Amino acid sequence: MSKPNIPRRAWTQLFTRALAARLAQAPLFSLRRFFRLSLLVLPFAAPSLLPAQVSLATLVDMAAKNSSVVKLAQADLAKAHAVLSQSRDAFIPVMSFGSGLPAFPEIGFTGNLPTLWDGNVQSMVFSMSQINYIHAARAGVNAAELSLKEAHEQVALDTSTTYIELDTVNSDLAAVRQQEEFAGRLVEIEQQRAEAGVDPLSDLLQAQLTEKQIKLKRIHLESRAGTLASQLSALTGLPAGSIVPDHASIPVIPAVRADEAPRSTPGIESAQFMAKSREDAAKADAFHTRLFPEITFGALYNRNTTLLNDINKYYNTPLPSTDFSSGFSVQLPIFSAMAHAKAQESAAEALRAKVEVEQAQRQNDVAIAQLTGSLRELDTVAEIASLKQQIAAEQLKAVLAQLESGNGSGIGPGATPQLSPKAEQQARINERQNYQDSLDAGLDLSKARLNLLRALGHMQDWLDELHAK
């Protein structure tokens, strides 16, 4: 009896439940035996219960294997290969065997030769239409291969951007939780100062408002992290919440520029080959309306029988035991309204495919122009955010130094006022906020760079860098 095909996670759950039931039934179960069994279960239960860091390259590979878009493109490629094989096989002889042995005694003349068995061979020898159909099928295979590459790149782009965003959101969450702690301390300080009459009530209310705003941002980031984790789960097939991004596995995104010589993207190249396929198919259909001959070869062999029939009564000579015939058939199209209509339909499809290629190229050029403008702006925004974060960090250091050394130079005119404890919390909140702004600006810049890489046809460079990381 074969072992049932149960996933490892299911086995772990079943074993854990069985262990729990066993513990519940054993009233004198010793502590030492409990720990021994726990050590045995832990290596099996931990991988299925705890999230683990997964590199970006691993997730990209898993997403490519799990993606329905990639699977559909693979099915299209298999179909294109089958179409090419079918178009070529028209020149391969087709052989068939059969039998015409009567089931009951025949009466009278039926017009058909009674045979024990017969063989038939047919093959196309020459056809300009079929040759162009082969060219069309070969172009269709090239289009399907490039479409599969395009699907791989799209899945890699979606997985990379989602992974990088989840890594950034996790860093944002860590910073906003620290910020929330600082805001809580600020509320406590303002509460004490308001009760002592040092600060007005409006300062306390402002501190409470800041705390709630930070809490709202934390809730938003937690919701966003859950959404991104679900997206990665759908892309890769891994359980939701089991993926922890490994920041070290994210390579530096190449900073390409639009003025570099752009490469043709797989999507555009696929559309070009599809247009060529439509054009070759239109040529093939057009040959059916021209005076181009189509030559086929055929051969027939019959093994005749006189059993259960009186066929010899109707012939001057006895029926021969074998019949064999062969020859070439030449078909010359003169006129066919259906063939003319089919040729016009194919020509219209070829024209449409050509226009679609031009449209895809123009759309890609527009996307490159938009991404280039956005990239220049986002690059500057990231630099500004980084400078603000550095300034906030230096201001925090200055505040901490003044509080530690006992700041303030007196109470006279122009003297530096003594800093209150709330200044430290405000400086810490401000520094964390600028740090989050810097992370968000870097995320927008990374997304724009990845999309520009793909629009310029350099996505494979990113994938090579990713797997070399």
What does this molecule look like?
With 469 residues, this protein is an alpha+beta fold. It is 66% helix and 9% strand. It has a 4-stranded antiparallel beta sheet. It has a two-stranded parallel ribbon with strand order 1-4. α5 runs antiparallel to α9 and α8 packs antiparallel against α9. It starts with 7 loop residues before the first helix and ends with a helix.
Task: Name the features.
alpha+beta; two-stranded parallel sheet; 66% helix; 9% strand
Write the layout of secondary structure elements.
Layout: H1 8-25, H2 31-49, E1 52-54, H3 56-66, H4 68-88, E2 94-98, E3 115-126, H5 128-195, H6 201-236, E4 243-245, H7 266-287, E5 294-304, E6 322-331, H8 337-405, H9 421-455, H10 459-468
Parallel strand pairs: 1-4
Antiparallel strand pairs: 2-3, 3-5, 5-6
Helix pairs in contact: 1-2, 3-5, 4-5, 5-6, 5-7, 5-9, 7-8, 8-9, 9-10
Residue ranges: pLDDT <50 for 5 or more in a row?
Answer: 1-15, 37-49
Sheet/helix structural class: alpha+beta
| Average of pLDDT | 85
List how many beta strands DSSP finds.
6
The CATH superfamily of the domain at 57-92 and 127-292 and 333-365 bears the name Outer membrane efflux proteins (OEP)
CATH class of the domain at 57-92 and 127-292 and 333-365: Mainly Alpha
